[in-house]
Amino acid sequence: MKNTIRVLQLQTIVQTSKKDNLENVRTLLKDRFEKDAPRPDLVTLGEMFTCPYETKNFPLYAEAQDGESVAFLSGLAKEYGIFLSAGSIPEKDREGHVYNSAFVFGPDGNILARHRKLHLFDINVRGGQAFRESDTLTPGDSITVFDTPFGKMGLCICFDARFPELFRAMVLKGARIILVPAAFNLTTGPAHWEILFRQRAVDNQCFVIATSPARDLSASYHAYGHSMVTDPWGRVVSEMDEIW
After folding, report:
1. DSSP label at residue 39
2. Residue 92 pLDDT more than 70?
3. pTM above the 0.70 mark?
4. Which helix (H) or strand (E) holds 8?
5. Whole-angstrom Cα distance, residue 73 to residue 25?
6. d(Cα 108, Cα 96) in Å, to the nearest integer?
7. Are strands 228-230 and 207-211 parallel, antiparallel or unpaired?
8. Which residues are catalytic?
9. Which residues 6+ apart lie within 8 Å of 144 measured at CB?
10. pLDDT of residue 180
11. Distance separating alpha carbons of residues 65 and 68, to the nearest angstrom
């Protein structure tokens, strides 16, 4: 098992064009790998990075697991020889259910893990944010842990992190690094983003890698940004600001 891992978090602006969002990831990876900079082992993306974060959009942008987005991301992982935690996308199954699904790809392009968001973001904060993912999304039903050369990793999505039992279940299955594509907003982000992930790391003696989309004040949903890594001591190893 390898003792160190180099992580590159891509905090991207979410545009209305799925193709443009995917091509943006390619451009960012190409630019990074053309520079004389350390090569990342793991690249991470934010929640719903191909789709503007609105409930009405999820069915419109949804595609099957063998659709264009998964094929594109698989190809990027293989091209650059990286582990790619490819945020999350709207995924549609054969019965027409739409899920908020996160995929992780290995350096060979194969899917290592798929996590369908268990806890849908249905909130109405007085004087703050109101949102109902359940209007168009179906919840998943599985705890997701997978093997890598860096040890076992767990995978969950945004609101899942509010439930400490899920983190504990992943750690009990052997996870030592938890990947969390997330899109906290300007109500929940300033209040809970940092303290939540620091506490999950301390409680479970694990690393947490939480990756957000960048903030776009022209969009209807304003992501908090601040993608970060926390360690088992609860220290913030790295943190971005709100832009990309």
Report:
1. P
2. yes
3. yes
4. strand 7-9
5. 9
6. 30
7. antiparallel
8. 47, 117, 158
9. 102, 113, 114, 115, 154, 155, 156, 170
10. 98
11. 9
